[in-house]
Every structure is written in C-alpha cells, then in structure tokens.
C-alpha cells in the first residue's frame, strides 16, 4: 500500500480538488493507497470538507491536530501515522502537482528508497523568496555534512525502511529534509514546476521560513553554535 500524506491548514478552497486529482492520478497505479490529510487546526471549513470526503471514499483518512503545530509538525504527524510501504508527502495547496505521483512511484519500484522533488525556478518567483532560499542551501551545504540540492521541497516519497528509521530516531527534529539526507539510503530526484496556488495565499509566513532555516542549520552542524559561543566569549 502507498500512503499520500498532505498537511492542510485553512485549505477549504482546494482540499476537495486535491483529493480528486490524487485519486485521478493514481487510477492506473496497481498498489492500493490511502490519502492521509493532516488538518493543522484549521479555523475555516477545511475539517468539515475532509470528513465529508472520508464518508464518500474510505481511502481518505485524516488526523485533526489539537492545535496548530506548523507545516513541518503536521507532515511529521502524517508520516508517523501512515501505514503504507511507501509514504509520499505533498503540500495541500496543489503547488505540488498530483499528476507526478505515478512517476515517483515508478522510481520507487525501480529500487530507490527516497525520491525527492526539486523545484524549477520560475521567472515569476519573488526575489525575497528565491535569494534567501539560495543563500540558505549554500550555507547549509558549507556547514553540514548532509548535502541538499537547491530547491528540495517536501514533495517526496519515502520507502517504509526510511520511515522506520526516521520514526525510531530518539530526538525528532523539525528539519525533515536534513534528517532524510542524514539517514542515507538509495535516493533519486526529479525537477518539477511549482504550480500556482489554486486559491488564496501561502500560509507559510516569512517568520516561519526563517525559523525553518535556523532549525536546519543548528540541527545538522555544530559550527553555528560554535560561532555563537565565540561571539559570546568575545
């Protein structure tokens, strides 16, 4: 079985199309599957729509978080609850095209334990998003033993072996991209074009992006910590 995990927060305008496009893209896939929607304590009608979708299709399952744990926390909750032999994670705003799921599954069948998707840069991408991201990946790769490709996203497939290792790490951090790179296993990746949001605006504020970057840098390198200590001593 394959698990598709998608964190959703105030996505009442897109969650129904998300499920429809996932089921459509997997129509010719031989494996059975579950769609696990993780509602990150939405304040709109997202959860009600998810419950209706669950009644209409038993392959749709959901987790309703007791408070807002953030994007990475919601993804982690889904990974820990997924039952599949492979676990796919994708955002709920349809910027990760569901039509690419069969390609990722085919790469998994070919023997890859991790299939990661890397964003193609769009000419319309805002500079305040692109350049800080570019700097982050450059700095991260300089400071850490774990290397990440620029543009890696949370659009990925993990084999059950990888999931089992991740869920058994005693200190579970928020920087999943680094954790997945750190545990190893056979990996491959593809580029994808980020689709425009179906409705609304990104729920990931600038402050969340900076928090995510700091988590990554301090989780996988002691060098930033050493720099802070040196500055403190000086």
TrEMBL record:
<keyword id="KW-1133">Transmembrane helix</keyword>
<keyword id="KW-0472">Membrane</keyword>
<dbReference type="InterPro" id="IPR050256">
    <property type="entry name" value="Glycosyltransferase_2"/>
</dbReference>
<protein>
    <recommendedName>
        <fullName>Glycosyltransferase 2-like domain-containing protein</fullName>
    </recommendedName>
</protein>
<dbReference type="Pfam" id="PF00535">
    <property type="entry name" value="Glycos_transf_2"/>
</dbReference>
<keyword id="KW-0328">Glycosyltransferase</keyword>
<dbReference type="InterPro" id="IPR029044">
    <property type="entry name" value="Nucleotide-diphossugar_trans"/>
</dbReference>
<dbReference type="InterPro" id="IPR001173">
    <property type="entry name" value="Glyco_trans_2-like"/>
</dbReference>
<keyword id="KW-0812">Transmembrane</keyword>
<feature type="domain" description="Glycosyltransferase 2-like">
    <location>
        <begin position="3"/>
        <end position="163"/>
    </location>
</feature>
<dbReference type="GO" id="GO:0016757">
    <property type="term" value="F:glycosyltransferase activity"/>
</dbReference>
<dbReference type="GO" id="GO:0005886">
    <property type="term" value="C:plasma membrane"/>
</dbReference>
<keyword id="KW-0808">Transferase</keyword>
